[in-house]
Design brief:
heterodimer, A: mainly alpha, 10 helices, 71% helix, 0% strand, elongated, B: alpha/beta
Chain lengths: 209, 366
């Protein structure tokens, strides 16, 4: 029996029950009715959950997770969850499909599929951007100026996604900062954000008189 | 065997830990990249490690082969912000090129504050110079060049005015024979007020170029020490110069000043051929925190941005190293000597030694 057939049958059952309910007597119909009510309640919860998962942004999130498995690695999903203040969707070494499923569940539970979609889309877009040539100091400074013109949030996101720790350090040095060997990424990122924005603002040709 | 080893601890002939350490510690002079011949008379040259750098100087005192000579290139050191190190760079670079690399250098002081003049001349030399009168007039300074332009006279005589072999010691001995000075006088202040017409302004703008043109054959480099503004005298320096060098103090105020200067220079020369900023020298650098490093990075970025819109030539560069802030520079001005003669081991002297190399690589000479 398919779900449409079941729906049809439930419609006809509902109509018959409405017409003949006054004729039902004894414990047996009552017991059957209780069983149907319980099964209907269970089916309803399944239906609600399914409908929620397939709403606009949830569907979009599911599609993103399914289509970009190469970009959305465990590490990136864990970092995104952390950034959105969720629980971790799993370990770095866990099976990727499980981490993606858990990530989706967390997004649905937090009702934050839109935010998750935006962040994952940025990650996918930035991943497709060509890599900066960091061999040249002038190129590093040009990159710093470009980054400094972004909004703080976009800048932080781009630093998170496109710049591994070694390149982030190079970027900081291009801004004239002294970077300690033990300085963590967490501490370094806000400094780079601040100095990149200052760098772009101070070196703009239309700045000042 | 064990007893013998134990006894070596108390051996009185064995050097102590400190003695061993001292033997292996390098002296601060070991880090210097320059040497002098043992025959040199002055204190700096007596240091054995100076020998290499002064080798050129010996050759330069000999007659110049005609084929290697080329007309002097004129460099104007300008920035309309005061206290950025215009005079410091002019004096120390010029003296370094003359003393260490054997170049013939003329310093032309255009600043009414006469800072380069005061730096290179002892007060005992400066006072008589002002009191001395030639043909009933005060001894000539750069002021005479501009006075001639305004009055349409031809009184300026470079042969009389240029002071050769400055600075000099108490006995009048020339310390840097190849460094010459065309001094300034406070009267330069009046020149700006005496410009009463557009024609006079034009005469003033081209006066310095006309005065320096005959001197090109006598020197390798002519350095113009400009006043901290962009009035007629500075404009005349811009017209006369082949290259402009901007001393830069690493902070935002200097950065914004540099941006404005680059913009103004485009219009400053009018119809005259264009000299552009070819180099920036960072002075008064302090390696404390991130403030100065970040400011220098911003300067380099601004240079790249200005090059992208062709407001600066592609050859413009921030010369390395930056000159570190050093109290010895102030001291050396009081001693009337370049910093590397007064305190050859100080940070500023080391930076100037390296900067001279960078300067010659950026502006190569035959």
């Amino acid at each position: 029996m398919t779900y449409p057939e079941l729906a049809q049958r439930l419609w006809s059952l509902a109509a018959a029950l409405e017409t003949h309910s006054s004729h039902l007597t004894g414990p047996a119909p009552a017991k059957a009715a209780a069983a149907v009510a319980k099964a209907a309640e269970k089916l309803n919860s399944f239906l609600t959950q399914s409908a929620q998962r397939n709403s606009g942004d949830n569907r979009r999130l599911a599609d993103l997770l399914a289509d970009h498995t190469d970009v959305l690695t465990n590490l990136r999903l864990i970092e995104t969850a952390k950034r959105l203040h969720w629980k971790s969707p799993g370990a770095k070494t866990a099976i990727p499909a499980k981490v993606r499923a858990k990530f989706f569940d967390l997004a649905v539970a937090a009702d934050a599929a839109t935010a998750a979609c935006e962040r994952l889309e940025s990650i996918i877009r930035l991943h497709a951007t060509p890599k900066t040539d960091f061999a040249d100091e002038a190129a590093r400074r040009a990159e710093l100026r470009r980054l400094g013109r972004l909004t703080p949030e976009a800048l932080e996101l781009e630093l998170d996604i496109r710049f591994p720790e070694a390149e982030l350090r190079q970027l900081a040095r291009a801004a004239g900062l002294t970077v300690g060997t033990k300085e963590s990424r967490t501490k370094l990122t806000p400094r780079v954000v601040h100095y990149a924005r200052r760098h772009a603002e101070n070196t703009a040709l239309d700045a000042g008189a | 065997m064990q007893a013998t080893e134990a006894l070596s601890w108390v051996n009185p002939t064995r050097p102590t830990f400190l003695q061993r350490r001292r033997r292996h510690t390098r002296k601060s002079t070991d880090f210097l990249p320059y040497r002098v011949p043992a025959s040199c008379s002055d204190r700096a040259e007596q240091r054995p490690r100076f020998r290499f750098a002064f080798a050129h100087r010996r050759n330069r005192n000999e007659a110049f082969p005609a084929a290697t000579l080329m007309p002097a290139r004129i460099f104007a050191f300008l920035n309309f912000k005061g206290g950025v190190g215009k005079t410091t760079n002019v004096v120390n670079l010029a003296a370094g090129l003359a003393y260490l690399r054997g170049k013939r250098v003329l310093v032309v002081d255009l600043d009414a504050q006469c800072n380069a003049t005061y730096w290179l001349l002892r007060p005992s030399e400066f006072k008589p110079m002002h009191e001395l009168r030639v043909d009933g007039r005060r001894k000539q300074t750069t002021w005479q060049i501009y006075r001639d332009a305004l009055d349409q006279t031809h009184s300026f005589d470079a042969r009389v005015s240029i002071l050769r072999g400055v600075p000099r010691n108490e006995n009048g001995t020339e310390l840097v024979p190849l460094l010459h000075l065309l001094p300034a006088s406070v009267d330069l202040l009046d020149i700006e007020f005496d410009v009463d017409s557009g024609v006079a302004a034009h005469r003033l703008r081209v006066a310095l170029r006309q005065a320096l043109e005959p001197l090109r054959e006598d020197y390798d480099f002519i350095f113009l020490d400009c006043p901290p503004h962009l009035h007629f005298i500075t404009q005349s320096a811009v017209v006369a110069a082949d290259h402009l060098i901007v001393p830069f103090m690493p902070d935002y105020l200097s950065l914004s000043g540099f941006r404005v200067l680059a913009r103004l220079l485009k219009t400053l020369r009018g119809g005259e051929p264009q000299a552009k900023i070819d180099a920036v020298i960072v002075t008064r650098f302090k390696k404390i925190g991130n403030a100065y490093g970040a400011a220098v990075a911003e300067l380099k970025s601004l240079v790249e941005e200005l090059q992208a819109v062709q407001m600066l030539p592609a050859r413009c560069a921030v010369l390395e190293p930056s000159i570190r802030d050093d109290i010895r520079i102030g001291e050396s001005a009081s001693e009337h000597q370049p910093v590397f003669m007064h305190a050859p081991l100080c940070n500023a002297a080391t930076d100037y030694f390296a900067l001279i190399g960078a300067f010659l690589r950026h502006f190569p000479t035959p």
